[in-house]
Specification:
Shape: flat
Oligomer: single chain
Structural class: alpha+beta
Helix content: 10-25%
Radius of gyration: 28 Å
Order of helices and strands: HEEEEEEEHEEEEEEE
Length: 225
């Protein structure tokens, strides 16, 4: 790039000097450009956000809910996550036009997200899924006529950029029961069991959260909570 050959390059006239200077300048620019591209490629945030392969429908205090999981495999803190669920349903107008109608499904927006988060949509009177749930259409394999599109986007403070992931739930995505517990506590250390990310359990089975609270600490002794 600098010497333009293995040996010395000696310009013998003015145009040779100009050509040599242009070649050296272009070589430096190409070198800097390639280096910047390589650095930018390795510094780009790698999206390790994943959605569960299926979703479940269960009742919470008498209100049916649609649940699915989103996980951050790197388990660091993501800020201001924005989660959006969209119902895509084939609709035929009075004029005979057929298209996919989009209806937003309301979900709670967490302030931060680290390991896993369960996205919950309440199928109440104001939900677009209410009639589909009451008629039993939502509990059946609707195929391509009924889809739920999930999107998550969050700010990664490590890379200073946004991460995003999408998933579409359609035929065969509805699972039975409830999601299995992923939190494991061994030797006072809490970990996440990613093998249970898509696993479910029967609704009547006991859960780990039902364990009694530990005894309060005695005065004067350290206690790790």
């Amino acid at each position: 790039i600098l010497t333009m050959s293995e040996g010395s390059v000696v310009p013998i006239d003015r145009w040779s000097h100009v050509l040599s200077w242009i070649m050296i300048a272009l070589g430096l620019l190409v070198n800097v450009f390639v280096f910047s591209v390589v650095v930018a490629k390795f510094q780009a945030p790698q999206s390790d956000l994943v959605w569960s392969s299926g979703c479940v429908i269960l009742s919470r205090d008498g209100v049916p809910h649609l649940l699915m999981r989103v996980g951050n495999l790197r388990c660091h803190t993501l800020y201001s996550p924005r989660i959006r669920l969209t119902l895509l349903r084939r609709h035929v107008t009075q004029e005979g036009e057929s298209y996919f109608r989009r209806d937003d499904l309301s979900v709670d927006q967490p302030a931060t997200m680290s390991g896993i988060h369960t996205v919950a949509h309440a199928i109440d009177d104001g939900s677009p899924l209410r009639e589909l749930y009451a008629s039993g259409t939502l509990l059946k394999d609707a195929g391509e006529a009924l889809l739920i599109h999930a999107v998550v986007q969050a700010f990664d403070n490590v890379y200073g950029g946004d991460l995003s992931a999408t998933h579409t739930y359609g035929k065969g995505s509805l699972l039975e029961g409830a999601f299995a517990d992923m939190i494991r506590s061994e030797g006072g250390r809490t970990t996440i069991d990613w093998d249970a990310f898509n696993a479910t359990r029967p609704l009547g089975s006991p859960v780990r959260d039902a364990d009694p609270e530990p005894s309060p600490p005695r005065p004067g002794r350290p206690y790790i909570s």
